[in-house]
TrEMBL record:
Transmembrane segments: none annotated. InterPro entries: LolB, Uncharacterised_CoxE, vWFA_dom_sf. This is VWA domain containing CoxE-like protein. It comes from the Bacteria.
Length: 380
């Protein structure tokens, strides 16, 4: 197959049967790929509204017209055989999140074949109440594997932030992580080469990093467990486990919807913690922040991080008053619209702006960025 023919085939798989008059019909394995894609994306209601049929005309395939005959198990077997890993993960994510194919997480045969991923973990947390004991035991193994992978990834990233507090005095020990970029530029400005527009570095500068004694700080994580925040709930639980027991830091973890549940006792076991989370329901951020405020022991050595989409179902005025009170007593208040790998949030900007106006620091962070923020505060 030539490159042009391969490109046309990819467009045919992307666009479906309506593109065949320009691309020609799929051939070989692409026929089965088209069947698998049609089984999933043919469910899109937008196609029906536009009068578009995602799948191609019936062909002589084993079992008849496969798009209507495939089971979820058959489909999973097919996508694992026909597509690369990255595509499989995307297809599984769309199946459980976009099209809500619940037997992906409630059928034992399906669970035994599916690739564990964060999207599958989110689906497990959303549908746990539909599972019988056998399926729940299998789902727990998926939770354990995904959490184990996340812990391995985040633990190093999070803990590196706490390997010492940077001092502003120079150091003779040359370690990459302590490189003083601005100091090096200032020290070598005399070596600027105008013709090459470069600075020759003759005297690299480094900060010292010490493990000096630090005061005890509190980090109070308040995480919204409404359905839209599933990714942040997962990363918050794992981040809290990574932070637990670090010198100079006492970590609390609280989940909330319209009620508040203190999960601090389960922080060291994020799998057990996540299996207790109840995704969905309303949101009362004010109640959660008020509870968080009651946990503060030393206001000027405390960080209250509220992880939420800021769509407040409770009393917004109470929320603003509580945040203002925390800030005025010297507590750092973080309003995080997302805490995950992407830090790409959807949130109520009006409520977030009101909290920012009374002194909260509002944004989105990855777990590593949160760890750096906390470490910098503790090290001051």
């Amino acid at each position: 197959m030539t490159e042009d023919e391969a490109a046309l085939l990819r467009w045919r798989l992307i666009l479906g049967a309506p593109a065949e008059r320009h691309t020609g019909p799929p051939t070989g394995d692409a026929v089965d790929q088209d069947v698998a894609l049609s089984w999933l994306y043919g469910r899109d209601p937008e196609l029906a509204r536009r009068g578009v049929r995602r799948g191609g005309p019936p062909r002589d395939r084993r079992g008849g017209d496969a798009p209507s005959q495939l089971t979820t198990v058959d489909w999973l077997d097919a996508v694992h055989r026909l597509f690369p890993r990255e595509t499989i993960e995307r297809l599984q994510r769309d199946a459980v999140e976009r099209f809500e194919i619940l037997d992906v997480v409630t059928d034992p045969d399906v669970l035994s074949r599916i690739e564990p991923s964060q999207s599958l973990l989110r689906a497990v947390l959303r549908t746990r109440h539909l599972m019988n004991p056998e399926v729940l035991a299998m789902a727990r193994k998926i939770v354990e594997q995904v959490v184990r992978d996340l812990l391995a990834k985040l633990a190093t990233e999070v803990r590196q932030s706490f390997t010492g507090t940077r001092a502003r005095r120079p150091s003779r020990f040359r370690r990459a992580r302590d490189f003083d970029f601005h100091g090096t530029i200032r020290a070598n400005l005399g070596n600027y080469q105008a013709d090459r527009r470069r600075i020759a570095i003759e005297e690299p500068r480094f900060h010292s990093r010490t493990r000096r004694a630090i005061d005890q700080w509190q980090l109070i994580l308040l995480v919204d467990q409404s359905g839209s925040m599933a990714g942040s709930v997962i990363h918050t639980a794992v981040t809290a486990a990574c932070l637990w027991g670090l010198p100079g830091l006492k970590t609390h973890l609280v989940a909330f919807d319209t009620s508040v549940v203190d999960l601090t006792d389960d922080v060291t076991d994020p799998v057990e913690l996540l299996m207790k989370v109840q995704l969905g329901g309303g949101t009362d951020i004010a109640r959660a922040v008020s509870y968080g405020a009651s946990l503060v022991d030393a206001p000027r050595r405390s960080i209250v991080a509220v992880i939420t989409d800021f769509y407040e179902g409770g009393d917004v005025a109470w929320l603003v008053r509580t945040v203002r009170g925390l800030v005025e007593q010297g507590t750092v208040v973080l309003g995080l619209a997302a805490l995950d790998e992407d830090a790409n949030p959807q949130y109520d900007r009006a409520t977030a702006a009101r909290l920012a106006d009374v002194g909260a620091q509002v944004g989105a962070m990855t777990p590593g960025q949160l760890a750096n923020f906390v470490a910098e505060r503790i090290g001051r």
